Amino acid sequence: MKPVLPNFIIAGVHKAGTTSLFFWLMDHPEVICSLDKETNFFIYTKYKTPARPIEEYYAQWPKYNNQKLIMEASPGYFYGGAATASEIKNKCNNPKVLMVFRDPTDRLYSFFTRKKEVFQLPENTTLEEYIKKCESFTDEELVLEKNHIYTGMVFGHYIKHIDDWYNVTGNNLRVMFFEELREPKKVMKDLCVWLGINPDFYDTYNFDVKNKSGTYKNKLMHTIAVKMSFGMQRFWRSNPALKKRVRDFYYVLNRGSKKPATDDESAKNYLRQHFKPYNEKFATYLKTKGITDLPKWLS
Q: In terms of residue numbers, what domain contains 64?
């Protein structure tokens, strides 16, 4: 069979609902999704590292059977700007691209708690400590892959990259907001119309939010769960019903209540002030593109 490449990519941003969108689309009969949700195939354009063989990318869709939509979702692409957008356009023949944006303060907090949850940050790290660490790096240092974990703040400066994507992809770019996912049926039916697939599939669909951050009761049990989640990603994606049963059972056994630290609100207020000028410029820019129905954090 002739190798295929995606004609639709969810390219941004982290912790804004892209995992839920990916799995909701994966269930649609006219869609085939990549074996790995985040292939990150084009991330070399961002980090200026050697490109992987294109055959590795072809291998993400081994069961292609003339589905209308071939997709992947790598939210890190957004921060590669023009270089990443141009490479995607050239290699994939100008696919449609979706960007989902979230209040950068909430996005950072979710990113921060998730990194602690999967042991990529020490679990006793406070939000204030994390912010100070992010601010200790220069812009040149933050474009290095090894420092990805401390990009929480610069990744909230959406205005720095959005124009690059519009300039490269034009009308093939669609912007959404995290708040829209509160009405998942409406979001998915509208998205289907834009993508040219049947929206009726979601009339009776059971929407389930994916990749939620949270806390745990028993650290050993959670450590094992994290290793199983990361180490068996393709297996779980091939068996979503089994994954849901296992995940729900785990949540009953080991999910803790989410209680922010007492200093979180002060740190969040600092973040809101930090992001305010970037958000204002972002909102002004989006209005030039005809996007005027903006969420509270942009209005």
A: 8-214+258-298
**pLDDT tens track for 162-178:** 999 999 999 999 999 99
Query: Does 211 have pLDDT greater than 80?
Result: no
Query: Taking the complete model, does pTM exceed 0.90, yes or no?
Result: no
pLDDT of 299 reads 85
Residue 14: inside a domain, yes or no? yes
| Structure tokens that stand for 65 in this block | 């059977």
Q: In sequence order, which ranges of the chain are alpha helices (DSSP H)?
A: 18-26, 44-47, 54-58, 81-91, 104-117, 127-135, 139-142, 159-169, 184-195, 219-231, 233-238, 240-254, 264-288
β partners of residue 10: 73, 98
In this structure, what are the phi and psi dihedrals at residue 174, rounded to the nearest 5 degrees? -125, 135
267 and 127 in contact (C-beta within 8 Å)? Answer: yes
Tell me how far apart the alpha carbons of residues 42 and 47 are, in angstroms, rounded to a whole number: 10
User: What secondary structure letter does DSSP report for 214?
Assistant: -
User: d(Cα 170, Cα 99) in Å, to the nearest integer?
Assistant: 13
Q: What is the DSSP pairing of strand 255-256 with strand 215-216?
A: antiparallel
- Looking at the structure of the chain, the number of domains it has is 1
The answer to whether the CB of 207 falls within 8 A of the CB of 184 is yes
Q: Is the pLDDT score of 219 beyond 60?
A: no
Which of 53, 45, 29 has the alpha carbon at shortest distance from 79?
Answer: 45
Say how far apart CA 73 and CA 76 lie, in whole Å.
9
Cis check: omega of the bond before 13, within 30 degrees of 0 = yes
State pLDDT tens for residues 11-55: 999 999 999 999 999 999 999 999 999 999 999 999 999 999 999
d(CA 68, CA 288): 32
Report the distance separating Cα 3 and Cα 142, nearest Å: 35
> Which has the closest alpha carbon to 88: 172, 3, 192, 174?
172
Return the structure tokens found at 102: 């979230």
CATH code for the domain of 196: 3.40.50.300
Query: How large is the average pLDDT for residues 204-210?
Result: 82
